[in-house]
Amino acid sequence: MKPSAKKIITKRFIHIETECKKKPKELAKILDIDLSTYYKTKRGDIAPSNHFLVRVEHKLGYRGEWLKFGSGEPKDPEVLLESEIKSQYALINKLKNYELLPILDALPDSPNEKDKNLLLDFLNLFIQKFQ
């Protein structure tokens, strides 16, 4: 990489570290790469591989094109992170375990405030049983 490109990619890595509030060691672990590879890529000593860019997109939500070339926005707002998908999947499983999906499906899409508060009060009362 050219010297100027090295500094630019380093700034993008610093942006990711700052926004994610993670240290390089933590990000390397999340990306499942060696810390030395992370630092070499961050410094611009080696170009980010396609495999590396895919991991950054799927695990951190940052667009590979942005990281490598600086083009476009850092994140695609329509892309769900792997952790968000896992979290939603866990919630759906919990709804299935309580057999609530058919009940929730039968509820109106736009409840009036009184009905919504009644349901929330009931659920909060039920949750107190487990606390």
CATH level-two architecture of the largest domain: Orthogonal Bundle
Low-confidence stretches: none
Number of DSSP strands? Answer: 0
Distance separating the two termini: 56 Å
Radius of gyration: 22 Å
| Helix-strand topology string | HHHHHHHH
Mean pLDDT: 88
Shape: elongated
Protein name: DNA-binding protein
GO molecular function: DNA binding
Keywords: DNA-binding
Give a structural overview.
Keywords: DNA-binding. This is DNA-binding protein. InterPro entries: Lambda_DNA-bd_dom_sf (IPR010982). With 131 residues, this protein is mostly helical. The protein has helices at 3-20, 24-31, 35-43, 50-60, 64-69, 82-97, 101-106, 113-128. The chain folds into two domains: 3-69, Orthogonal Bundle (434 Repressor (Amino-terminal Domain)); 83-128, no CATH class. The protein has eight helices and no strands. Helix 2 crosses helix 3. It is elongated. The relative contact order is 0.08. The model has no long low-confidence stretch (mean pLDDT 88).
Compact description:
The chain is 69% helix and 0% strand.
Secondary-structure map with pairings?
Elements: H1 3-20, H2 24-31, H3 35-43, H4 50-60, H5 64-69, H6 82-97, H7 101-106, H8 113-128
Helix pairs in contact: 2-3
Please supply descriptive tags for the structure shown above.
434 Repressor (Amino-terminal Domain), mainly alpha, 131 residues, 2 domains, elongated
